Amino acid sequence: MATTATLTLTSADIAGDPVNVSKTTTCTKAGGTIDLDQSTGMNRIILRESTNKLLLGATAGGNDLSAKVYLINKATDPTQFVTVTINAQTIGKLYAGDWMFLPWSQTDTSADIEVAATSYTTAGGSIPIEYCLFHEDSIRLADA
Amino acid sequence: MPTTNATIGLSSDITDNSLSISNSSTLYKAGSDTSGVDTMTSVTKVLSSTNQVDLITTGSVSTTHAYVYINNPSTDSTEFFKIHIGNAGGGSASDTEEIGRLYGGDWMWFPWDVDDDITITPSVATDMTVEYQVFS
Lengths: 144, 136
Hints:
The complex is a heterodimer.
Chain A: E1 3-11, E2 19-26, E3 38-39, E4 43-47, E5 53-56, E6 67-73, E7 81-86, E8 89-95, E9 99-103, E10 113-116, E11 127-135
Antiparallel strand pairs in A: 1-2, 3-11, 4-11, 5-10, 6-9, 6-11, 7-8, 7-10
Chain B: E1 4-12, E2 19-26, E3 40-47, E4 53-56, E5 66-71, E6 80-86, E7 96-103, E8 107-112, E9 117-122, E10 128-135
Antiparallel strand pairs in B: 1-2, 3-10, 4-9, 5-8, 5-10, 6-7, 6-9
């Protein structure tokens, strides 16, 4: 069971010489070569509020383990962006079409990943995002 | 206007029905779809202590929206960098939030709002190399 992520960065004209970076990582459990074996699968949600919403809740069991987060803003209006935070610390703004791929430490249960459709207006329309988590911690399910 | 593209190919067979994603984005300045990023910084550093240090400071970028690529090129899967964001330079390590750990071979890509510094903490003091690029 393997999960691989490949980044390709290209530009013919941002510098005097072309930029062409390609890097593939196989997502493994922390500190070893065993593949990650759990996933949330792909999710799609529609954001219609400018306040922070919980996207992924950190778990104490995830601390020191491996987790990878993929998140993309599927809006098409270039002015529509989503602000991404971890434990209320802003990471950055995902504008329409932008994506991110991060390792996620879950250093404590406050290290939630939250998103806010900061630019949302009724006139501008809702902002769809898609995300997926690959992880190794086994206690992501809340007790029934 | 320079044109810079960032593409991800993500595949996984963890689930019974495999996942395959491919998305490409053109890197624009904040809120634009006509004005592409026009500045790039590309750095390779060797770190020789386990101290938390600044990797990319807000003062190194003149905009409020940037894209960051960080790579751990090590082939040792036990060696990692802790990547934090916060105000390490103006306070203590506790003023930063750990985003995640980049183990040997791992990379990360994210938009950065240039409000706080990005810091790095190697797991060992034996010459760990980190590579990064910033587009703004």
